[in-house]
Write the structure tokens for this entry.
Amino acid sequence: MEERTIDGEGVKIQTQAFGHLDDPPILLIMGAFASMTWWPDDFVELLASAGRYVIRYDNRDTGTSTAYAPGMAKYTLADMAKDAMAVLSGYNLQAGHLVGMSMGGVIAQLAALVRPHRVKTLTVVSSTPLGVEWLPPPHEDYRQHMAALGHLDWNDKEQVADFLARDAEAVAGRRRPHDADAARRLIERDLARSPSFSSLRNHLAVAAPSPVQARAADIRIPTLIVHGTADPVFPIAHADAMVAAVKGARLIAIDGGGHELHPDDWPQIAREILLHTCVIHIGRL
């Protein structure tokens, strides 16, 4: 594993790469409140051991990437899409296969729309399509859980850890057992390496593009959608809408899966990503 710090238009982006640099590159983009460590090491190794050069990175305000004072961040999802392209450039890659989860899936869609020549394939995990209106909201139980954010002291690491632990349970599917201890260890590891963990709250205010500016229907990149049928954050109708919007998109529905990367589902998800990225390798700049 190689660690590298990338400079992207004044933003410091912390990255890690796995595998052999001559293999087809996969760029993993995580969602809100989560650093790159939420792409589990063993899942990353599944991809790398199968002949992929896998890069993961800390989004702004997570891990050791650039952090802004809470409430003072002015960046947008479009800026975060530029960060993804900066990571590719930082590894001297002309293009790569983008895999984004949740908010990372929206970032990946934006990158595919703005820089299509740099995105060989697109995989969207547990996310929502750009530019599609009237999709169902999160489940009522999850909305009630998120209401607790109004009372959270983001400067109290224990409170933040407790909330994220409850969140990990709230987003879990019901077909697979939720490992609360493993989730807590991941959260504590993540917060321990995040010197400005209170800046995670900035993700709540990241501005999304309007439907007129960016639409999934305009994506012309081969697209794979992976979505749990019991996702409480983005109900499965979001995945169905993306299949309808993106020409040729293919949906892998994880039966009973939630808004998560459950270890029991890693082999299936990794296999589908590997199949989706079996294309001619573009190479390096």
About this structure: Helices lie at 41-49, 77-90, 103-114, 140-146, 157-170, 180-192, 237-245, 266-276.
